[in-house]
Amino acid sequence: MRRAVGVLVIVALVGLALVWSLQRRLIYFPAPGPLPPAATALPGGQDVSFRTDDGIELAGWYFAVPGAEAAVLVCPGNGGDRSMRVPIAAALNRMGLSVLLFDYRGYGGNPGSPSEEGLAADARAAQAWLAAQPGIERIGYFGESLGAAVAVELATERPPQALILRSPFTSLPDVGATHYPWLPVRWLLRDRYPSIDRIGSLRVPLLVIAGDRDDIVPEPMSRRLYEAADEPKRYVLVPGVGHNDLELLAGAQVLDAIRGFVSASGLTW
Predict the structure, then answer these.
(1) Could you tell me which residues come within 8 angstroms of residue 120 by beta carbon, excluding any fewer than 6 positions away?
(2) Of 45, 111, 146, 223, which residue is the least packed, with the fewest Cβ within 10 Å?
(3) What's the pLDDT tens digit per position in 140-185?
(4) Confidence (pTM)
(5) In this structure, how many other beta carbons lie within 10 angstroms of the beta carbon of residue 115?
(6) Could you give all domains of the chain from N- to C-terminal order, each with its CATH number?
(7) Between the CA atoms of 123, 92, 236 and 103, what dihedral angle is there, to the nearest 10 degrees?
(8) Which among 151, 269, 162, 252 is positioned nearest to 207, based on CA atoms?
(9) Sheet strand arrangement including 206-211
(10) Which residues neighbour 77 within 8 Å (Cβ) at sequence distance 6 or greater?
Protein backbone atom coordinates (compact mmCIF):
# COMPACT_ATOMS: atom_id res chain seq x y z
CA MET A 1 0.00 0.00 0.00
CA ARG A 2 2.80 2.42 0.89
CA ARG A 3 4.51 1.65 -2.40
CA ALA A 4 1.31 2.27 -4.35
CA VAL A 5 0.74 5.57 -2.58
CA GLY A 6 4.34 6.52 -3.23
CA VAL A 7 3.97 5.81 -6.94
CA LEU A 8 0.80 7.91 -7.12
CA VAL A 9 2.52 10.80 -5.37
CA ILE A 10 5.47 10.61 -7.77
CA VAL A 11 3.15 10.51 -10.78
CA ALA A 12 1.21 13.49 -9.45
CA LEU A 13 4.37 15.48 -8.82
CA VAL A 14 5.72 14.69 -12.27
CA GLY A 15 2.42 15.74 -13.79
CA LEU A 16 2.43 19.03 -11.90
CA ALA A 17 6.04 19.64 -12.90
CA LEU A 18 5.10 19.15 -16.55
CA VAL A 19 2.17 21.52 -16.24
CA TRP A 20 4.45 24.09 -14.60
CA SER A 21 7.12 23.83 -17.27
CA LEU A 22 4.76 23.72 -20.26
CA GLN A 23 2.05 26.08 -19.04
CA ARG A 24 2.87 28.92 -21.41
CA ARG A 25 2.36 26.58 -24.35
CA LEU A 26 -1.18 26.14 -23.05
CA ILE A 27 -1.75 29.90 -22.78
CA TYR A 28 -0.12 31.43 -25.86
CA PHE A 29 -0.86 30.20 -29.38
CA PRO A 30 1.14 32.40 -31.75
CA ALA A 31 1.02 32.17 -35.52
CA PRO A 32 4.72 32.18 -36.42
CA GLY A 33 4.61 34.47 -39.47
CA PRO A 34 6.06 36.11 -41.43
CA LEU A 35 3.21 38.29 -42.64
CA PRO A 36 2.65 40.06 -45.97
CA PRO A 37 2.90 43.85 -46.30
CA ALA A 38 0.26 45.95 -44.56
CA ALA A 39 -0.95 47.35 -47.88
CA THR A 40 -2.18 43.88 -48.83
CA ALA A 41 -4.45 43.90 -45.78
CA LEU A 42 -5.94 47.38 -46.27
CA PRO A 43 -5.17 50.04 -48.87
CA GLY A 44 -2.66 52.55 -47.55
CA GLY A 45 -1.47 50.31 -44.76
CA GLN A 46 2.05 50.93 -43.49
CA ASP A 47 4.55 48.41 -42.16
CA VAL A 48 6.01 49.74 -38.93
CA SER A 49 8.33 48.53 -36.18
CA PHE A 50 9.34 49.65 -32.71
CA ARG A 51 11.61 48.43 -29.93
CA THR A 52 10.61 47.48 -26.40
CA ASP A 53 12.51 48.54 -23.30
CA ASP A 54 14.08 45.08 -23.11
CA GLY A 55 15.32 45.25 -26.68
CA ILE A 56 12.73 43.25 -28.64
CA GLU A 57 11.98 44.59 -32.13
CA LEU A 58 8.25 44.27 -32.85
CA ALA A 59 6.42 44.59 -36.15
CA GLY A 60 3.02 46.09 -36.74
CA TRP A 61 0.63 47.53 -39.29
CA TYR A 62 -0.49 51.13 -39.14
CA PHE A 63 -3.69 52.16 -40.89
CA ALA A 64 -3.78 55.95 -40.81
CA VAL A 65 -6.82 58.05 -41.59
CA PRO A 66 -5.66 61.35 -43.17
CA GLY A 67 -6.28 64.23 -40.81
CA ALA A 68 -7.38 62.03 -37.91
CA GLU A 69 -6.45 63.26 -34.45
CA ALA A 70 -7.51 60.05 -32.72
CA ALA A 71 -6.19 56.52 -32.98
CA VAL A 72 -6.84 53.11 -31.47
CA LEU A 73 -4.24 50.65 -30.22
CA VAL A 74 -5.50 47.08 -30.68
CA CYS A 75 -4.18 44.60 -28.10
CA PRO A 76 -4.84 41.15 -29.58
CA GLY A 77 -5.79 37.95 -27.84
CA ASN A 78 -3.61 34.91 -27.23
CA GLY A 79 -3.89 33.32 -30.67
CA GLY A 80 -3.01 33.98 -34.28
CA ASP A 81 -1.48 37.23 -35.48
CA ARG A 82 -2.47 40.77 -36.43
CA SER A 83 -3.93 39.71 -39.77
CA MET A 84 -6.91 38.27 -37.87
CA ARG A 85 -7.73 41.76 -36.51
CA VAL A 86 -8.01 43.50 -39.88
CA PRO A 87 -11.86 43.54 -39.79
CA ILE A 88 -11.90 45.65 -36.61
CA ALA A 89 -9.15 47.90 -38.00
CA ALA A 90 -11.16 48.50 -41.17
CA ALA A 91 -14.28 49.28 -39.16
CA LEU A 92 -12.44 51.72 -36.90
CA ASN A 93 -10.95 53.42 -39.96
CA ARG A 94 -14.47 53.93 -41.28
CA MET A 95 -15.26 55.68 -37.99
CA GLY A 96 -12.44 58.14 -38.67
CA LEU A 97 -9.91 56.51 -36.37
CA SER A 98 -6.35 55.57 -37.25
CA VAL A 99 -5.40 52.08 -36.02
CA LEU A 100 -2.23 50.31 -34.93
CA LEU A 101 -2.27 46.53 -35.14
CA PHE A 102 0.78 44.88 -33.66
CA ASP A 103 1.95 41.44 -32.63
CA TYR A 104 3.43 40.51 -29.29
CA ARG A 105 6.85 38.93 -28.98
CA GLY A 106 6.83 35.44 -30.46
CA TYR A 107 3.83 36.25 -32.68
CA GLY A 108 3.69 37.14 -36.37
CA GLY A 109 7.40 36.62 -36.95
CA ASN A 110 8.51 38.71 -33.96
CA PRO A 111 11.44 37.42 -31.88
CA GLY A 112 11.13 36.40 -28.24
CA SER A 113 8.72 34.31 -26.20
CA PRO A 114 5.43 35.56 -24.74
CA SER A 115 4.88 36.11 -21.03
CA GLU A 116 2.80 38.46 -18.91
CA GLU A 117 5.74 40.77 -18.29
CA GLY A 118 6.77 40.61 -21.94
CA LEU A 119 3.31 41.44 -23.30
CA ALA A 120 3.09 44.41 -20.94
CA ALA A 121 6.39 45.71 -22.32
CA ASP A 122 5.18 45.14 -25.88
CA ALA A 123 1.99 47.13 -25.29
CA ARG A 124 3.94 50.01 -23.74
CA ALA A 125 6.23 50.15 -26.77
CA ALA A 126 3.28 50.08 -29.17
CA GLN A 127 1.50 52.85 -27.26
CA ALA A 128 4.62 55.01 -27.22
CA TRP A 129 5.05 54.60 -30.97
CA LEU A 130 1.42 55.49 -31.63
CA ALA A 131 1.51 58.51 -29.31
CA ALA A 132 4.51 59.85 -31.23
CA GLN A 133 2.73 59.88 -34.59
CA PRO A 134 2.17 63.36 -36.07
CA GLY A 135 -1.30 64.72 -35.46
CA ILE A 136 -2.41 62.04 -32.98
CA GLU A 137 -3.79 63.73 -29.87
CA ARG A 138 -6.13 61.12 -28.41
CA ILE A 139 -5.65 57.35 -28.11
CA GLY A 140 -8.12 54.62 -27.25
CA TYR A 141 -7.31 51.02 -26.38
CA PHE A 142 -9.17 47.99 -27.76
CA GLY A 143 -8.31 44.72 -26.02
CA GLU A 144 -9.75 41.33 -26.80
CA SER A 145 -9.68 38.41 -24.35
CA LEU A 146 -6.08 38.12 -23.10
CA GLY A 147 -5.42 41.44 -24.82
CA ALA A 148 -8.12 42.99 -22.65
CA ALA A 149 -5.97 42.19 -19.62
CA VAL A 150 -2.95 43.69 -21.39
CA ALA A 151 -4.99 46.82 -22.16
CA VAL A 152 -6.21 47.14 -18.58
CA GLU A 153 -2.66 47.03 -17.23
CA LEU A 154 -1.51 49.54 -19.84
CA ALA A 155 -4.43 51.82 -18.92
CA THR A 156 -3.34 51.90 -15.28
CA GLU A 157 0.05 53.21 -16.39
CA ARG A 158 -0.96 55.35 -19.37
CA PRO A 159 -4.67 56.21 -19.22
CA PRO A 160 -6.37 56.28 -22.64
CA GLN A 161 -9.16 58.52 -23.82
CA ALA A 162 -11.39 55.44 -23.96
CA LEU A 163 -11.07 51.73 -23.18
CA ILE A 164 -12.88 48.96 -25.06
CA LEU A 165 -12.66 45.41 -23.72
CA ARG A 166 -14.03 42.47 -25.68
CA SER A 167 -14.51 39.19 -23.75
CA PRO A 168 -12.37 40.31 -20.81
CA PHE A 169 -11.72 38.05 -17.82
CA THR A 170 -11.21 38.77 -14.14
CA SER A 171 -7.85 36.96 -13.95
CA LEU A 172 -6.10 34.15 -15.76
CA PRO A 173 -6.27 31.84 -12.72
CA ASP A 174 -10.05 32.32 -12.71
CA VAL A 175 -10.21 31.25 -16.37
CA GLY A 176 -7.90 28.30 -15.72
CA ALA A 177 -9.93 27.13 -12.74
CA THR A 178 -13.07 27.20 -14.91
CA HIS A 179 -11.56 24.93 -17.53
CA TYR A 180 -9.33 22.75 -15.33
CA PRO A 181 -11.12 22.48 -11.98
CA TRP A 182 -9.16 19.34 -11.05
CA LEU A 183 -5.80 21.15 -11.22
CA PRO A 184 -4.39 23.63 -8.66
CA VAL A 185 -4.09 26.31 -11.35
CA ARG A 186 -4.48 29.18 -8.90
CA TRP A 187 -1.01 28.55 -7.51
CA LEU A 188 0.54 26.91 -10.57
CA LEU A 189 0.21 29.82 -12.99
CA ARG A 190 3.16 32.15 -13.41
CA ASP A 191 1.24 34.58 -15.63
CA ARG A 192 -1.79 35.89 -13.79
CA TYR A 193 -3.19 39.02 -15.49
CA PRO A 194 -5.20 40.21 -12.44
CA SER A 195 -7.53 42.66 -14.20
CA ILE A 196 -10.06 42.45 -11.36
CA ASP A 197 -7.46 43.99 -9.02
CA ARG A 198 -6.63 46.79 -11.45
CA ILE A 199 -9.80 47.95 -13.13
CA GLY A 200 -11.18 49.74 -10.10
CA SER A 201 -8.33 52.23 -10.24
CA LEU A 202 -9.21 53.38 -13.77
CA ARG A 203 -11.00 56.67 -14.38
CA VAL A 204 -11.62 56.40 -18.11
CA PRO A 205 -14.75 55.70 -20.18
CA LEU A 206 -15.19 51.93 -20.46
CA LEU A 207 -17.07 49.72 -22.90
CA VAL A 208 -17.25 45.96 -22.20
CA ILE A 209 -18.52 43.62 -24.91
CA ALA A 210 -19.30 39.95 -24.27
CA GLY A 211 -21.04 37.07 -26.02
CA ASP A 212 -23.58 35.02 -24.11
CA ARG A 213 -22.27 31.76 -25.62
CA ASP A 214 -18.60 32.39 -24.92
CA ASP A 215 -17.10 29.01 -24.00
CA ILE A 216 -13.58 30.38 -23.37
CA VAL A 217 -14.29 33.36 -21.11
CA PRO A 218 -17.69 32.79 -19.50
CA GLU A 219 -19.90 35.84 -19.88
CA PRO A 220 -20.52 36.20 -16.12
CA MET A 221 -16.77 36.66 -15.69
CA SER A 222 -16.78 39.59 -18.11
CA ARG A 223 -19.75 41.07 -16.28
CA ARG A 224 -18.01 40.70 -12.93
CA LEU A 225 -15.04 42.68 -14.24
CA TYR A 226 -17.41 45.33 -15.58
CA GLU A 227 -19.16 45.63 -12.24
CA ALA A 228 -15.82 46.25 -10.52
CA ALA A 229 -15.15 49.27 -12.74
CA ASP A 230 -16.18 52.86 -12.09
CA GLU A 231 -18.46 54.97 -14.25
CA PRO A 232 -18.71 56.01 -17.00
CA LYS A 233 -19.14 52.54 -18.39
CA ARG A 234 -21.37 50.50 -20.66
CA TYR A 235 -21.94 46.76 -20.99
CA VAL A 236 -23.03 45.20 -24.29
CA LEU A 237 -24.17 41.58 -24.43
CA VAL A 238 -24.20 40.03 -27.90
CA PRO A 239 -26.66 37.13 -28.01
CA GLY A 240 -25.95 33.81 -29.67
CA VAL A 241 -22.21 34.25 -30.30
CA GLY A 242 -19.10 32.55 -28.94
CA HIS A 243 -15.60 33.66 -28.16
CA ASN A 244 -14.09 33.30 -31.64
CA ASP A 245 -17.10 34.26 -33.73
CA LEU A 246 -16.51 37.09 -36.20
CA GLU A 247 -19.76 38.66 -35.00
CA LEU A 248 -18.06 39.34 -31.66
CA LEU A 249 -15.08 41.00 -33.31
CA ALA A 250 -16.72 43.16 -35.96
CA GLY A 251 -20.42 42.33 -36.12
CA ALA A 252 -23.13 44.94 -36.57
CA GLN A 253 -24.13 45.12 -32.90
CA VAL A 254 -20.51 45.37 -31.77
CA LEU A 255 -19.67 48.10 -34.26
CA ASP A 256 -22.81 50.08 -33.43
CA ALA A 257 -21.84 49.96 -29.76
CA ILE A 258 -18.27 51.05 -30.49
CA ARG A 259 -19.39 53.85 -32.79
CA GLY A 260 -21.65 55.36 -30.15
CA PHE A 261 -19.09 54.84 -27.41
CA VAL A 262 -16.13 56.48 -29.12
CA SER A 263 -18.26 59.52 -29.83
CA ALA A 264 -19.62 59.78 -26.30
CA SER A 265 -16.17 59.23 -24.78
CA GLY A 266 -14.61 62.12 -26.68
CA LEU A 267 -12.27 59.91 -28.67
CA THR A 268 -13.88 61.26 -31.85
CA TRP A 269 -15.22 64.79 -31.93
Answers:
(1) 150, 153, 154
(2) 111
(3) 999 999 999 999 999 999 999 999 999 999 999 999 999 888 788 8
(4) 0.92
(5) 17
(6) 2-264 (3.40.50.1820)
(7) -30
(8) 162
(9) 46-51, 57-63, 98-102, 70-75, 138-144, 162-166, 206-211, 233-238
(10) 144, 145, 146, 147, 167
